[in-house]
Amino acid sequence: MTKRTGLFINADDFCLSDSITNAIVELSAKGKIDSTSVVVNNDLLNLKENLMRLNNFETGLHLNLCEGKPVTEIAQVKSLVNNEGIFYNYKILCIRYIIGLVKKSELFLEITNQYKLLEKYTKVSHVDSHKHIHCYPFIGENILKCLHTIGVMNIRNPYPVLYKQKKYLILRCFCSRRRWRKLVSNFNTPEGLISIYKLDNLSDVMEDFKHRNLEIMAHPSIENEGGYLDNNKEFNILLNR
Questions:
Q1: Left (φ > 0), alpha (ψ -120 to 50) or beta: where does 177 sit?
Q2: What is the mean pLDDT of residues 136-150?
Q3: Rounded to an integer, what distance in angstroms lies between the CA atom of residue 152 and that of residue 35?
Q4: Which residues of 79-108 are buried (b: 16+ CB within 10 A; e: fewer)?
């Protein structure tokens, strides 16, 4: 894995939906983004075929432990899923980890299998995670240990650079903990993270931070996916930059 430096744009959630995947393929082909991170646990999309559409583009793993189904056989990761074989949401997962209901061996197995599944089809340049769960107290520390063990070198630093809303302050606290900073020192990370969905002018931000080692995170899609993000707006911001 080559160390990622400078200011770069990463598009999350490749293979989460057709609309997201098509948007990222178009943006990568037109040189509007620098990398993408892939959701590998979506059975509805063909991972191999969609990765081939990226044409050797820089690709990382979007580690997903809190949405959909695991890539590991359910019987081997029972502590990570509910009775329907679906991952617990991130809040429940974190609580279950804290009270000892998540087996570390099963967590390690699922992380390893997601990484190996992506590695089967492409070179894995970096790892980030759904809901930034790798920076959460307790469970995040174990996730980092797992990633280090399997040889990951480049990971996301979710420390928010620009924003002061409540949820970003929480992320700042998570990423400022001494324990997390010690573990993350085993990896190559940017200084922090800028999210496109809150930006008024991407060009100004890229000019202001052009000499910094920062990641600009995007969630582009041809159509909006619902939730708090305006995915189509992000797609058009990137397409027209």
A1: beta
A2: 97
A3: 16
A4: bbbeeeeebbebeebbeebeeeebeeebbb
The structure tokens listed for 144 are 């980092």
39 near 11, Cβ under 8 Å? no
Identify any residues that bridge with 37 across adjacent strands, giving them in sequence order: 60
Residue located via tokens 């087996």 = 103
Q: Half-sphere exposure of residue 70, counting CA atoms within 13 Å on the CB side?
A: 24
**Rounded to a whole number, what is the distance in angstroms from the first to the last CA of the chain?**
28
Q: Side chain identity at 158, as an amino acid letter? A: P
**β-pair partners for 154:** 188
Q: Which of 111, 133, 115 is nearest to 124 (CA)?
A: 115
What is the per-residue pLDDT across 189-225, written as a single tens digit (0 to 9) for each?
999 999 987 777 888 888 888 889 999 999 999 988 7
- Find residue 239's DSSP bridge partners: none
Q: How confident is the model at residue 164 (pLDDT cuts 50, 70, 90)?
A: low
According to CATH, the topology of domain 8-239 is TIM Barrel (3.20.20)
> How far is Cα 168 from Cα 147, in angstroms, rounded to an integer?
24
> CA 13 to CA 227: how far, in whole Å?
14
Residue 36: its H or E element: strand 35-38
> In terms of pTM, does the model score above 0.85?
yes
Tokens describing residue 164: 């002061």
Task: Report which DSSP code applies to 212.
Answer: S
Task: With beta carbons less than 8 A apart as the criterion, state whether 20 and 227 touch.
Answer: no
d(CA 106, CA 214) in angstroms, rounded, equals 33
